[in-house]
């Protein structure tokens, strides 16, 4: 029987592992170190779980077989390698074999997942001796003990946060856990419903949704029975290899059973295909501020074609929830989505006509610090339009604070007032407050949803400079979007 290590012991393992990786010339910063550590952890965790399943299920077929199992090359003192021998085995045998695994093609097949991960995974360490030391540290982690897995999951999430900080310079905007918890709680995914994140990243939304559904599962069932009942209910897409690896590791550590996470672009499907492959719940913070490659927009109708990523994801989310009777979504968007009147205006027209955009939560400045200061919002909408009126809720910063920062981030407890105001699943008890107001769709002009709180005086003299600058930047973006639209229209005429 495995004895769980105390949290301090696992923390020490991670610290020693990072110290080892800092010595290797092939790793530069956490953006290299954490993925290196993650794929080794993934193989160790998978092998530990495989060994447990082989005991309980004699017919179980593991995804990885000898001599490529962790127990064969990393945990066996007889066959353990080091130095150049280890580098040769890992680089020329292990990783190529894992990348070429083939499965049944069924959703959630572990062999398919392993192959998708390792097709883009490289061993970046140059010293076979330091790699052997790192393998020794990973061997200290047990994924058999539930306590160890739980502790490792929390420590792993802390590493992900650090890597997210490093990734911010590359334009990766990750969602703070309090925002994720709030969004999942408002949509309240139930056992049996299928939940998707089309821009899954490191799996934050899917893990939170899974835990939420496990908590809501049959209380008389065992934890194993509860999780078995949720098998295959998580769906996702992630096109970048590093977040895909980290996300699969995150899901594995949280004991998510057979998630259907596709390594690819969620936007490369026709509208009809997306509707046919629909889900009940979508939770996502898609990339914004970037552009998709030219061919992607061809999957969308001519009136909606744009290279702007956030608009294409919004269209995709609409398609995904169209067929489910309980289809609903929560999507993080930048302010530009609210005020855009070009192609964005046409997309919002469809949103308001075919769906019920019942709530827009306006997040305060700094919510996504340090990645971006762009003001952000959460759109909550559901199948069954048209929209008749929209509730806005302006989330305030704590007293005495002008904005959130990396060192003083948003806390989940600060959503308590909004949750109390929300009014349950039917949202019947809402009233206007200093932070909440209701707008009839008939009063929305040119599909501009960038509406300010009428219950708060627009006192420029007392507003934070960062907020005023952000609004000026928004205005400049709006002007630029209109000029680009005009340029396109002129080009079409010529």
UniProtKB/TrEMBL annotation:
Catalyzed reactions per annotation: a 2'-deoxyadenosine in DNA + S-adenosyl-L-methionine = an N(6)-methyl-2'-deoxyadenosine in DNA + S-adenosyl-L-homocysteine + H(+)
EC number annotated for this UniProt entry: 2.1.1.72
The keyword Transferase belongs to this UniProt entry's keyword annotation: yes
GO annotation (BP), single: methylation
Signal peptide as annotated in the record: none
PROSITE patterns: N6_MTASE (PS00092)
Keywords: Methyltransferase, Restriction system, S-adenosyl-L-methionine, Transferase
Domain N6 adenine-specific DNA methyltransferase N-terminal positions: 11-137
Pfam families per record: HsdM_N, N6_Mtase
Gene Ontology molecular function, alphabetical: DNA binding; N-methyltransferase activity; site-specific DNA-methyltransferase (adenine-specific) activity
InterPro entries noted in UniProt: D12N6_MeTrfase_N, DNA_Adenine_Mtase, DNA_methylase_A-5, DNA_methylase_N6_adenine_CS, SAM-dependent_MTases_sf, T1MK-like_N_sf
Superkingdom assignment: Bacteria
Enzyme class (EC, first level): transferase
Domain DNA methylase adenine-specific intervals: 149-452
Family classification: Belongs to the N(4)/N(6)-methyltransferase family.
PANTHER family documented for this protein: SLR6095 PROTEIN, TYPE I RESTRICTION ENZYME ECOKI METHYLASE SUBUNIT
UniProt protein name: site-specific DNA-methyltransferase (adenine-specific)
UniProt organism field: Blastococcus haudaquaticus
């Amino acid at each position: 029987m495995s004895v769980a290590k105390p949290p301090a012991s696992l923390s020490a393992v991670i610290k020693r592992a990072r110290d080892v990786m800092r010595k290797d010339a092939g790793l530069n910063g956490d953006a290299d170190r954490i993925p290196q550590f993650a794929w080794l952890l993934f193989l160790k965790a998978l092998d530990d779980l495989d060994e447990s399943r082989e005991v309980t299920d004699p017919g179980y077929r593991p995804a990885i077989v000898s001599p490529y199992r962790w127990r064969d090359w990393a945990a066996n003192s007889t066959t353990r390698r080091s130095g150049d021998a280890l580098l040769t085995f890992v680089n020329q045998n292990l990783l190529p074999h894992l990348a070429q695994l083939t499965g049944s093609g069924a959703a959630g097949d572990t062999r398919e997942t392993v192959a998708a991960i390792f097709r883009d995974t490289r061993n970046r360490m140059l010293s076979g001796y330091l790699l052997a030391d790192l393998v020794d540290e990973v061997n200290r982690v047990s994924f058999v003990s539930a306590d160890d897995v739980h502790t490792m999951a929390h420590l792993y999430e802390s590493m992900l946060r650090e890597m997210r900080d490093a990734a911010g310079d590359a334009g990766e905007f990750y969602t703070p856990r309090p925002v994720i918890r709030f969004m999942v709680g408002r949509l309240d995914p139930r056992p049996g419903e299928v939940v998707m994140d089309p821009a899954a990243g490191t799996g934050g939304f899917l893990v939170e949704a899974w835990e939420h559904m496990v908590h809501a599962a049959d209380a008389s069932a065992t934890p194993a029975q509860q999780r078995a009942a949720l098998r295959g209910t998580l769906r996702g897409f992630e096109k970048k290899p590093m977040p895909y690896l980290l996300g699969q590791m995150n899901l594995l550590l949280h004991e998510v059973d057979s998630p259907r996470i596709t390594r690819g672009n969620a936007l490369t499907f026709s509208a009809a295909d997306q509707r046919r492959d629909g889900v009940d719940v979508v939770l996502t913070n898609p990339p914004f501020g970037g552009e998709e490659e030219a061919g992607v927009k061809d999957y969308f109708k001519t009136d909606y074609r744009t290279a702007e990523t956030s608009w294409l994801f919004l269209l995709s989310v609409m398609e995904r929830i169209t067929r489910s009777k309980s289809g609903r979504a929560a999507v993080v968007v930048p302010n530009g989505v609210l005020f855009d009147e070009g192609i964005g205006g046409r997309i919002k027209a469809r949103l308001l006509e075919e769906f019920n955009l019942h709530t827009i939560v306006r997040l305060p400045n700094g919510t996504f610090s340090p990645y971006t200061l762009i003001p952000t919002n959460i759109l909550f909408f559901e199948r069954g339009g048209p929209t008749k009126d929209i509730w806005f809720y302006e989330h305030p910063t704590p007293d005495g604070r002008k904005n959130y920062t990396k060192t003083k981030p948003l806390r989940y407890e600060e959503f308590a007032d909004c949750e109390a105001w929300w009014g349950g699943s039917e949202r019947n008890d809402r009233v206007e407050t200093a932070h909440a107001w209701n707008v009839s769709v008939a009063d929305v002009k040119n599909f501009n949803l960038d509406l300010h709180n009428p219950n708060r005086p627009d006192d420029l003299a007392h507003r934070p400079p960062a907020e005023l600058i952000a609004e000026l930047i928004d205005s400049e973006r709006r002007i630029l979007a209109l000029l680009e639209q005009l340029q396109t229209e002129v080009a079409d005429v010529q």
